[in-house]
Design brief:
The protein is an alpha/beta fold. 44% of the residues lie in helices and 14% in strands. It starts with a helix and ends with a helix. The structure holds flavin mononucleotide.
Length: 341
């Protein structure tokens, strides 16, 4: 199967596969504050994630491109929705366009549609520094995501098996670029140990990409004759992964993503220590099922949810969420008791 056919396959299965019964954002209860003191209409959701100035903590996380006209259309619609609502956007892995220049237009359309937007390029950790630079140039990107997806590769019959040079590649790319480099999981979450290793080579931007939403073990297992179903629920749930990273590395710029269903889940990621949050599968589902205008409506709804949470916590700015009180339940509570000491 070609890379571009695989991209289309991923979209189909990512939309169709069964979600977890429990989303661990439900293990987090934010403490309500009764005495609201702000004017809802004047609340501002601008924020900064390290060097990146964002008009919202929400961004569209990496999904597509590289699958011909269909993926160009999806990227075009997502880019227009991001422009209309002022949010950042990542594209899917650009390795396909680096290997096959015919696919470049499926990514370039994003910058064409949104000339002034905040855009993230995306490559795998197998990329060379020159390939990473090419991906950034293709979009005139503001940051680069390097995705890590070990288990997805292992389940994929045609996936990578040799990761011996991964860390060195990440280090080389990071040293070669002068824009933020975000290391990103794709739904398995990052542990304290992983974040520590990345921190040791100077990485400052982490997208924990935790378990709870789009599940690439299930997606890849659907494409296999003999699935590795035992690994279907492998990974660290997103809220736990945000806590692992933020508790031990508060100076890093942390993004919470994976299973964010709505604005309140996003706010919970911020309360647990993230600086921003990404949404992928849910926005794609809205786009495919209901169209671009509904994606815009969904993003505007999420922005209202963020402002509502600001009022209910007496928070003036997005970066104050991380100082607010919360209570943990279930696995998230057990995990923090055993790991965050
Ligand atoms: C159809 C689809 C394709 C994806 N392709 C990529 C990719 O090329 N690169 C990447 O870093 N992440 C990719 N992802 C992963 C998302 O960026 C995100 O990490 C993951 O879906 C979890 O977030 P969610 O639960 O909000 O979907 C893809 C997700 C979907 C749904």
């Amino acid at each position: 199967m070609s890379r571009s056919e695989r991209k289309i396959d991923h979209i189909r299965h990512a939309l169709g596969h069964e979600r977890e019964h429990h989303n661990h954002f439900d293990d987090v209860t934010i403490v309500h504050q009764s005495l609201a003191r702000q004017d809802f209409d004047k609340l501002n959701i601008n924020t900064k994630v390290g060097e990146l100035s964002l008009s919202s903590p929400l961004f569209v996380n990496a999904m597509t491109g590289g699958g011909g006209e269909k993926t160009k259309q999806i990227n075009r619609d997502l880019a227009l929705a991001a422009r209309e609502t002022g949010i950042g956007m990542a594209v899917g892995s650009q390795m396909s366009a680096i290997k096959n220049p015919e696919e470049r237009m499926t990514y370039e359309v994003v910058r064409e549609m949104n000339p002034d937007g905040i855009l993230f390029a995306n490559v795998g950790s197998e990329a060379t520094p020159d390939q990473a630079k090419e991906a950034v140039k293709m979009l005139d990107a503001d940051a680069l995501q390097i995705h890590i997806n070990t288990l997805q590769e292992l389940i994929m019959p045609e996936g990578d098996r040799d990761f011996t040079s991964r860390l060195k590649r990440i280090d080389d790319i990071h040293k070669a670029l002068d824009i933020p480099v975000i290391i990103k999981e794709v739904g398995y979450g990052m542990s304290r140990e992983t974040v520590q290793t990345l921190n040791e080579i100077g990485i400052q931007y982490i997208d924990v990409g935790g378990l709870g939403g789009t599940n690439f073990s299930k997606v890849e297992n659907l494409r296999r004759d003999k699935p590795f179903a035992s690994f279907n629920n492998w990974g660290i749930p997103t809220p736990i992964s945000v806590l692992e990273a933020s508790h031990h590395f508060p100076e890093l710029h942390i993004i919470g993503s994976g299973g964010v269903r709505h604005g309140l889940d996003g706010v919970k990621a911020l309360v647990l220590g993230a600086d921003a949050f990404g949404m992928a599968g849910n926005l794609l589902r809205v786009l495919i099922n209901a169209g671009r205008e509904e994606v815009i409506a969904e993003i505007e709804h999420i922005h209202k949810e963020i402002r509502m949470a600001m009022m209910l916590m007496n928070v003036e700015e997005v970066n104050e969420f991380k100082a607010q009180p919360y209570v943990l339940h279930g696995l998230t509570k057990d995990w923090t008791e055993q790991r965050l000491r």
